[in-house]
């Protein structure tokens, strides 16, 4: 009469399975991280597109882009980190228009956390750092440009024209 032995997995077989599972997990995590960064970049671009549309509405309603916001409140250069909402008449569109302020805030959160703004009565520009590469920015301006600039937000806006480089 034959007897059968139940044979389980050997330690080597279990280790091989664990290694394969570990490699597959690493691949999935890398792909997920890349997708998350690309999603953040898409959020930046979408919110800056909202700013462009809302700035056109602001100009139509006011015949200008509001008082100059040029960094006098804290910085220098062709602009400064974008201001927050205060709704005081006669201020920059970056302070008066809540839709613009919310879009800048969301874009900055979706990106890597830094932004730069400039406006005067006739031109404006906004740049926000990208999540996939914080050394690059997405920049939109009143001339209709919407493009990636290979610099941080503070250097993405031209000091002379006050538009995207």
Could you please describe the fold and organization of this structure?
The chain is α+β, with helices and mostly antiparallel strands and 165 residues long. It has one domain (12-156). 44% of the residues lie in helices and 12% in strands. The chain has four helices and four strands, in the order αααββββα. β1 (115-119) and β2 form a beta hairpin. The model is unreliable at 72-78 (pLDDT under 50).
User: How many E strands?
Assistant: 4
Molecular shape: elongated
Count of discrete domains: 1
Give the helix/strand class.
alpha+beta
SS strand fraction: 5-15%
How many strands, what sense, and barrel or not for the largest sheet?
Answer: 4 strands, antiparallel
Sheet with the most strands: spatial strand order: 1-2-3-4
Radius of gyration over C-alpha positions, nearest whole angstrom: 25 Å
**Given the structure, what is the number of helices?**
4
Mean pLDDT: 86
Order of helices and strands: HHHEEEEH
Helical residues, percent: 40-55%
Tell me the distance between the termini: 87 Å
Poorly predicted parts: 72-78
């Amino acid at each position: 009469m034959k007897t059968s032995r139940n044979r389980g997995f050997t330690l080597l077989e279990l280790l091989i399975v664990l290694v394969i599972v570990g490699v597959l997990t690493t691949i999935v995590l890398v792909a997920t991280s890349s997708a998350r960064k690309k999603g953040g970049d898409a959020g930046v671009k979408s919110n800056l597109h909202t700013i462009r549309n809302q700035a056109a509405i602001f100009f139509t309603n006011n015949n200008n882009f509001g008082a100059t916001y040029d960094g006098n409140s804290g910085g220098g250069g062709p602009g400064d980190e974008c201001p927050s909402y205060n709704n005081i008449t006669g201020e920059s569109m970056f302070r008066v228009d809540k839709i613009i302020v919310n879009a800048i805030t969301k874009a900055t959160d979706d990106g890597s956390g830094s932004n730069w703004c400039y406006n005067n009565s006739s031109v404006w520009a906004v740049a926000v750092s990208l999540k996939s590469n914080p050394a690059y920015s997405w920049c939109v301006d009143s001339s209709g440009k919407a493009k990636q600039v290979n610099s941080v937000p503070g250097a993405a806006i031209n000091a002379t024209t006050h538009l995207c480089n």
